[in-house]
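May I ask for whichever protein you like with its backbone structure tokens?
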Amino acid sequence: EPFVADEYIERLAWRTPGGGSRGGEAFDPKRLLEEFVNHIQELQVMDERIQRKVEKLEQQCQKEAKEFAKKVQELQKSNQVAFQHFQELDEHISYVATKVCHLGDQLEGVNTPRQRAVEAQKLMKYFNEFLDGELKSDVFTNSEKIKEAADIIQKLHLIAQELPFDSLMDFCCYPLSFPGKYHDLECQLIQEFTSAQRRGEISRMREVAAVLLHFKGYSHCVDVYIKQCQEGAFLRNDVFEDAAILCQRVNKQVGEVFSNPETVLAKLIQNIFEVKLQSYVKDQLEEHRKSDAEQYLKNLYDLYTRTTNLSSKLMEFNLGTDKQTFLSKLIKSIFISYLENYIEVEIGYLKSRSAMILQRYYDSKNHQKRSIGTGGIQDLKERIRQRTNLPLGPSIDTHGETFLSQEVVVNLLQETKQAFERCHRLSDPSDLPKNAFRIFSMLVEFLCTEHIDYALETGLAGIPSSDSKNANLYFLDVVHQANTIFHLFDKQFNDHLMPLISSSPKLSECLQKKKDIIEQMEVKLDMGIDTLNCMIGQMKHILAAEQRKTDFKPEDENNVLIQYTNACVKVCGYVRKQVEKIRNSMDGKNVDTVLMEFGVRFHRLIYEHLQQYSYSCMGGMLAICDVAEYRKCAKDFKIALVLQLFDTLHALCNLLVVAPDNLKQVCSGEQLANLDKNILHSFVQLRVDYRSARLARHFS
């Protein structure tokens, strides 16, 4: 343990009799001092003894260090001598090696011509046997030496290729035809390869393939291998999965058998594509090509996708330098006849399918689509009828039907989404933006024009005139559904169309087309906003039917029990419903714009309505209560201007009840100070006591 002086002193004091407690009766400082002095002397003696021992060890260490240094010097000298001997030995070995190499070159120069001469002699001997018509050599008669025979035949074949044509013809006419033997041996090798493949003997296959490599029939050997590999490989319904498994298995084996595995594997893949896959694709597509466009397109997309997925898996294998181009050409060879006119089939199907979806919907509603004009005289008549209450012809009764269907929209968008996916997969990259634009045009035609635009036109034609009683305002429902549908349309535009055209000139064309659609719809929506006239008309009918003159000039001034009139209650209830409907039907800034217009018209209606009555003192109080309720209703608009208008109207109503002496003070208040004096006068004139000289004098 580490030495701590304080603890050591404490232990020493504790062991000393009379030194264990301070200030106690047993404490003896003299004895403790004596003990410390004695202990210090012992430590000094111990220190001197240890110091002598250290000095002795240092001397011994110095002596051994000198001896070790001397020994190291002797070893260095010995090492230098050994290194010199090693250099001499290395030089001697190099000299001998040079001599041996020179001698080997000389021997090789003598032996190589001799070996060639021996080989030539053997070939001449075998050649002579062919000329004699009798093969006596063991290499030709022993079936186990087929490899050596093949080597000899190959060499003789090369020699025969160099003979003059006349001599070659004579040679081929001998009883034992050399070309015939060449062919027979080649067939034997291929048969041996086939048998070895069936037995699964990889080493024998590799050996025979190496021999056949120099024969003309080597390619036939590869063909046989490819054919046998496919036996029993395509037994399931999924030809693509079978092909992938087969190629995976062959890829592991082909490198152990052939010296050029990438070529053999590429040939196998080519055979699979051009025979198995092409036949399968043709059977699947030709069945529906003319009879069922929907199934044809689904099958084409599915087959092309599965083929490209198979191609992606095959990219893992070594197929040569440009395997991407190789596989692309194979895919193109299968599908080229189907992809050339793909977009025409797609557009034709999309057009007929979309028309059928719409027609099926209108048939379910027992509705016959009618042609509704959208411009010129009819537009002018509609606007005049709505704005002037002149009956210029009856509006179309839609019976509350918006003629917009979420189901129809989802079906159209789903069909278009699938078309975009097929277009992305099946179109040539150079034609992709153009084809995507054509599909988008179909969506615009059937969703935006034939469905949404038709519903808006029908809704506009169904807007009742402002003087209609109990009119149902379904156009806001049309606006609400059209708004929801267009959000779905916009989402598909961004999610599925934009990725296909984002880097092409078609992008600006699509954006412009979308902008035109939005503007066209906004024009119709703006025209439909004249629904506000109908709302105001309904409110006029409520006020005319429910408001009585005695409401504001009761017969018994002291017996008025109501807080606000029945007309006010019904108008506020109607307004709140319409405000909620507007909020649900629109979004963004359109809500505030329409609510502000509605609020201004609502204020004008109440202002003009109040101007039609004269007010007693209690009637004026009731009018103030009505306006307070109208103002509370105006808060639901959440439009500052509308609330300010009703605040001002509420302040004007105070003129109906204020004491004549206070009229000038009220008129100069914050809310009324900036109003025209005629407006203030018009409200004061509504008081039943206006004609009194006192009131007229105070107001003037």
Summary: Residues 104 and 110 are 10 Å apart (CA to CA). Residues 40-132 form one domain. Confidence is low (pLDDT under 50) at residues 173-178, 374-378, 383-394. The two ends are 113 Å apart (CA to CA).
